[in-house]
Every structure is written in C-alpha cells, then in structure tokens.
Amino acid sequence: MRINIAKRAPPGPATADKKASSRYPFAVELPDSATVDELKAAVAKQVSSLRPDRQRLTFGEKKEALELGSSLSKYGIKHGDTVFVKDLGPQIGWQTVFYIEYFGPIVFHFIVYNFQSLFYGQSFEHSDVQRRVYLLIMAHFIKRELETAFVHRFSHGTMPLINVFKNSFHYHMLSGLNLAY
Q: Which whole number is the average pLDDT over 80-100?
C-alpha cells in the first residue's frame, strides 16, 4: 500500500522553511499488513535526519499519535491516506537521563560534606547525625543508580534532550546542593 507522508503545519503564520518543506510530502510503499514501526523505518529511510525515535506520527484530525507495534489498519489507514510526521528534536535515552539526574546529588553531597571551608568559611567536625544523614543520602542515590542499571525497564526509549536540563535542575539543585548545604 502507498502511504503519503506530510509534515503537519505548525499553528500560527506560515514559515518559509524551504529545506524542510522541499522534502514533504512524499510517499512510501508498505505491505498491507504494515505496522507503525515499519512506517517509521520507511520515513527514516526517506529523511535520514529523522530517526524513528524522533518521529511522532499522527493520522486524521484527532492528531492522536500512532502507537509503536500497532498495525496501520488499527487506525483505519489505507492505500493513499496521508500520515503526518512531526520531528520531536534531539532525543536522549531514559537510562542516560536517570544516570545524569542521580549522579548530581552524589557529587554535590560529597563536595559540600568534604570541603566545608568552601561553603562555610571554616572546617569542622561533623556530628553523628550529619554523618548518618550524609551516608543515608549517598546510599539512596547510589541505590538509584544501581536500580537504573539493573532493575528499571523503560516503556519509552527516549525523551527530548531539553528535558534532561529541567529534570536535572530538580535533582542537582534541590536534592543536591540545597539538601547538602
């Protein structure tokens, strides 16, 4: 079956993105029993910068995303229909995101705990409570790093790269620097 691929126009005034618009629309040939995964692979073949994890495919006016693993017939897509594609931008793997997020508090706690003179202007002996809290927090985030490596299974392979900065702010500043200080 032949599926047309078009870029959904962004809301607002039209932009003159000639390079992107020159690629679209285009058509791909797929078997009648094709899945969303096969369609994404076919789109990636046509537009090399658009790897499958960067694509959001929608059909019809509802703009509902087509789910991986589903057949195109589930959505009523047939020969000659148009599927819209959106570039989700640079992506990063969830496992990498978790490593980055949980590593920050480990570093901040280590620095604040062991180099007090940088933060407080003097060195001092930590109390038993401070020592225990430090060890518990370090154990907590090290445990999370190990869970990421050996326990977690991620339902989505990637997330937008820009989100890692937003998520890391929470862990690095609030759970890291703020709690450590």
A: 92
Q: What is the pLDDT of residues 27-42, one digit of tens each?
A: 999 999 999 999 999 9
What distance in Å separates the CA atoms of residue 5 and residue 28, rounded to the nearest whole number? 8
Beta bridge partner(s), residue 7? 85
* pLDDT tens digits, one per residue of 42-73: 999 999 888 998 999 999 877 788 998 899 99
pLDDT at 131: 94
First-to-final CA distance of the chain? 62
Instruction: Count CB-CB contacts under 10 A for residue 86.
Output: 16
Judge if the upstream peptide bond of residue 25 is cis by omega within 30 degrees of 0.
yes
User: What is the C-alpha to C-alpha distance for residues 109 and 134, in angstroms, rounded to an integer?
Assistant: 7
**Tokens found for residue 98:** 């978790």
One-character DSSP codes across 51-104: -GGGEEEEESTT-PBPPTT-BGGGGT--TT-EEEEEE--SEEEHHHHHHHHHHH
Say if CB 55 and CB 87 are below 8 A apart: yes
CA 68 to chain centre: 16
* Beta carbons within 8 Å of 99's beta carbon, 6+ residues apart: 145, 148
The percentage of the chain sitting over the pLDDT mark of 70, rounded to a whole number, equals: 92
CA 177 → CA 61, 74, 80, 167, distances in Å? 46, 49, 56, 15
